[in-house]
């Protein structure tokens, strides 16, 4: 069992409690590997073979290496993934007191978490803080991560709901899911309590804080589990496992005639419709800047898009040991059986026979196994990045992901060996 890659993944996720922190860590890794940061508002001076990245909203990132060959003929190789995960966002004026004694915070659910899994866990807070600056249109940005257990969402005792294990228990996001942050004592000041807490943590004047984007996260660190450490038990594997694998492959890959792109979008969990999401023209704009910046024409751009290939990488469902009946009877990916090609007759995935054949070939070249996923025909299934991107560019592409259990649980499970496999597949793709 090759554990090194999975060990690095666990560390990457432990240090990335939010989309913002995931992008910060990506920036660090890319910079360490010789990538230079570009800024969208500045002129770009690109060189073939140069290593670059640009971010948007501090929560999406696009890294690329312009190919050494003819751009129109060789096109682009894209690996796409997403930085965000389901969570709870702190609402404005979040402080709520109960019986004059408890202090809890008002939150709003982000994406589709499995709500149950967030109960009775020590939680912390992290995110982006916007501070006063000289430019009224550009507040200064800092990031905060409290790192220590601060909050808990206590479940109702079974004595108040005796049938909870028999009948299920519908949950109200507004009533049931609010985290308690402490007891009220004689020093407590409700006004701007949270803002002052953030200011103290960041060691800045509270007057400087204009706003913040903070979310809850589980402070318990990821780890291996299983008798032979076969599994990774960790939060946010969807989709930071694919983000990490894409980054490892891009930094490990060699020279190429084709232009390599790693595109990490935000807001996949809420439909991708933001300026930093896959539904925006952001990737198309970057592709145009690369082609035109290196002296290409509009015609070269159209040809390059035609000659490109995209791997849309988002985690997939492994056969669940307790619910085999939920899965397709003949296609049920298993843990540590290799990356999963996702297919859907109604085209919820971009994969078709042509692009599945390409990915299968890549896996064979990388000497790794691969699997296929289709929905049980009575289940609706999910969606992902690939199709959304196609509204900007008519790319050939494949939807894939590593098999996992409990997608959108606060703590998901994936295969240790699979992480090594998918990095090998991605590296092979970038090296073709
Ligand atoms: Zn996902």
Please give a structural write-up.
This protein has helices spanning 4-14, 19-32, 71-74, 164-167, 193-202, 237-252, 282-293, 298-306, 353-366, 385-389, 416-431; strands at residues 36-37, 52-56, 60-65, 76-82, 87-98, 102-110, 123-131, 140-145, 180-183, 209-218, 223-225, 231-234, 259-265, 309-313, 316-317, 340-342, 371-373, 396-401, 403-405, 412-415. The chain folds into 2 domains: 4-85 and 235-431, 3-Layer(aba) Sandwich (Aminopeptidase), CATH 3.40.630; 87-218, Aminopeptidase i, Domain 2 (Roll), CATH 2.30.250.10. It is globular and about 70 Å long. The chain is α/β, with parallel strands linked by helices. The model has no long low-confidence stretch (mean pLDDT 95). Helix 9 crosses helix 11. 27% of the residues lie in helices and 25% in strands. It contains 11 helices and 20 strands. It has a 9-stranded mixed β-sheet, sandwiched between helices. Strands 11-12-20-19-15 form a 5-stranded mixed β-sheet. A 3-stranded antiparallel β-sheet has the order 5-6-9, with no helix packed on it. Zinc ion (ZN) is lined by residues 82, 238-239, 268, 314-315.
């Amino acid at each position: 069992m090759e554990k090194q890659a999975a060990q690095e993944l666990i560390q990457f996720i432990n240090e990335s409690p939010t989309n913002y922190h995931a992008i910060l860590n990506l920036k660090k890794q890319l910079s360490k590997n010789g990538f230079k940061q570009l800024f969208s508002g500045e002129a770009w001076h690109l060189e073939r073979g140069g290593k670059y990245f640009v971010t948007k909203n501090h929560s999406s990132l696009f890294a690329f290496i312009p190919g050494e060959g003819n751009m129109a003929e060789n096109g682009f190789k894209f690996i796409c993934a997403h930085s965000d995960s389901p969570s709870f966002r702190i609402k404005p004026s979040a402080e709520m007191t109960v019986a004059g004694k408890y202090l809890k915070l008002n939150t709003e659910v982000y994406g589709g978490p499995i709500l149950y899994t967030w109960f009775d866990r020590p939680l912390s807070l992290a995110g982006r803080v916007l501070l006063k600056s000289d430019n009224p249109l550009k507040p200064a940005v800092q990031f905060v991560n409290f790192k220590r257990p601060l909050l808990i969402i206590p479940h109702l005792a079974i004595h108040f709901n005796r049938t909870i294990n028999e009948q299920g228990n519908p949950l109200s996001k507004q009533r049931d899911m609010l985290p308690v942050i402490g007891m009220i004592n004689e020093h407590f000041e409700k006004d701007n309590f949270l803002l002052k807490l953030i200011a103290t943590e960041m060691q800045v004047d509270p007057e400087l804080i204009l706003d913040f984007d903070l979310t809850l996260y589980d402070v318990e660190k990821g780890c291996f589990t299983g008798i032979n450490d076969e599994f990774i038990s960790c939060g946010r594997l969807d989709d930071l496992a694919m983000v990490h694998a894409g980054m490892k492959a891009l930094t490990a890959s060699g020279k190429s005639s084709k232009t390599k792109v790693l595109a990490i979008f935000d807001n996949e969990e809420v439909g991708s419709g933001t300026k930093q999401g896959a539904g925006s023209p952001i990737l198309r704009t970057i592709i145009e800047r690369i082609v035109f910046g290196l002296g290409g024409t509009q015609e070269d751009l159209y040809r390059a898009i035609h000659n490109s290939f995209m791997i849309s990488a988002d985690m997939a469902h492994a056969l669940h040991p307790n619910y085999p009946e939920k899965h397709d009877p003949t296609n049920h990916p298993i843990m540590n059986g290799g990356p999963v090609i996702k297919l859907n007759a109604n085209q919820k995935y971009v994969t078709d026979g042509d692009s599945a054949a390409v990915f299968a070939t890549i896996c064979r070249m990388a000497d790794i196994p691969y699997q296929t996923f289709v929905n049980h025909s009575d289940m609706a299934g999910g969606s992902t990045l690939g199709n959304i991107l196609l509204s900007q560019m008519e790319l050939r592409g494949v939807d894939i992901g590593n098999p996992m259990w409990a997608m959108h649980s606060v703590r998901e499970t994936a295969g240790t060996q699979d992480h090594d496999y998918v990095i090998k597949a991605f590296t092979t793709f970038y090296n073709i």
